[in-house]
Amino acid sequence: MKYDVVVIGGAFAGLTAALYTSRQGMKTAVITKDIGGQGLLTNDIQNFPGFVSISGFELASKFQEQAQLYGAEFVYDEVISIEEIDGNFIARTREQSYESEALILAFGKTPRDLGVKGEEQFKGRGVSYCSICDGPLYRGKEVVVAGAGDHALQAALYLATVTSNVHVLQKTNRISGTQDMIEQTKPLQNIHFIYESEVDEIKGDRTVNSLLLKKKDGSRVELKTNAVFVEMGYVAKTSMLKDFVEMNKEGEVIINMNNETSRAGVFAAGDVTNIPFKQAVISAGHGSVAALSAINYIHRKHGRTAPKSDWKYIDTSKKEKS
Predict the structure, then answer these.
(1) Domains along the chain with CATH numbers
(2) Do 190 and 164 meet the contact criterion of CB atoms below 8 Å apart?
(3) Residue 319 has pLDDT above 80, yes or no
C-alpha cells in the first residue's frame, strides 16, 4: 500500500502530524497500536490550551476525529521493521507493508504486551491494545480487560457502553485504581471484576474465543470471551531504529529544529525524540513541525514549491447539522 506520508504512532504528536499532512492533500496513513498513547493514563489534563479540564481519552478522540475529517487513514497494528528502498520508505507490520515518500516517527512509547501464549497469534483478531479503536467491533459481546490501575478502569468504563459484559482481571483481591475511578465503575451492572487472576494463555480458532486464567492458588480456569483488551502500560521500542536514524544513549531519536532526523525524508516528533520536555502540547506542536517539514521535503523532491499555508477547507457547520 502506497502513501505520501506514513506516520508511526497515534498519540498527540502523530495525530497532529496526520492532521497537517492530510490538510495539505498528502495521502496519509497512521499506523498505531492505540489512540492516545500515554495520554490515556491521564484522567484530567488541565494544561492543554483551550481546555480547562479534559481527559486524555477525550482529547485523543478529538484529535483523531479531526485528522480523519481531512482524510487520514488509521491502521491498528504494530510496525516491526523499517527500511529505505530506492528513496522511499517501507514500514512493515505483521500483516502488511506500507510504502511512503516521507516517514514520521511519532510512536513515543508503545503499549506493553502481556507476553503470554497465543498473544502474537491473535493480535488484531481479538487481542487489542486500544479500547476506543476496537471496542465498537465487539458491540453486544463479552470482552475482558487485562491490566491494572486507572488505565484499565477507563478502558472498562468505555467498553461497558458498547459491549454486553466487561470482565476486568485483577491480580490482587482488590480493585487497582484511584477511588474516583473505582466509584465510577460501581453503578455499572455489566462490569465484573475477577480477583487474584491473570491471563496464562489466549485461545481461539480464527479469532479469540477464550482465555485460560491462572489463579493465585495455582489453579487454572477457562473464561469464554470474544476479545481481550490489554492495558499493561507502555514501553519504549526504538530498537528497530538502530542503524536507521541517529539516536542518543537513551535510545531517543535525535532531531534538529525542523524535526528532521539524520536520514533525509524521515522526521520525528514527540516522546520518541530527544526534546527535553515530554508534554502533550509540546508533542502536538512538534507533530505539526514534523508534518510541515515532511510536506516541504516531498514537494522539493518533485521540484515543486511547497504551499505556504493549509489549503483544504471543510465546512464544519454542515457536518454539525448532518
Answers:
(1) 2-111+234-321 (3.50.50.60), 127-231 (3.50.50.60)
(2) yes
(3) no
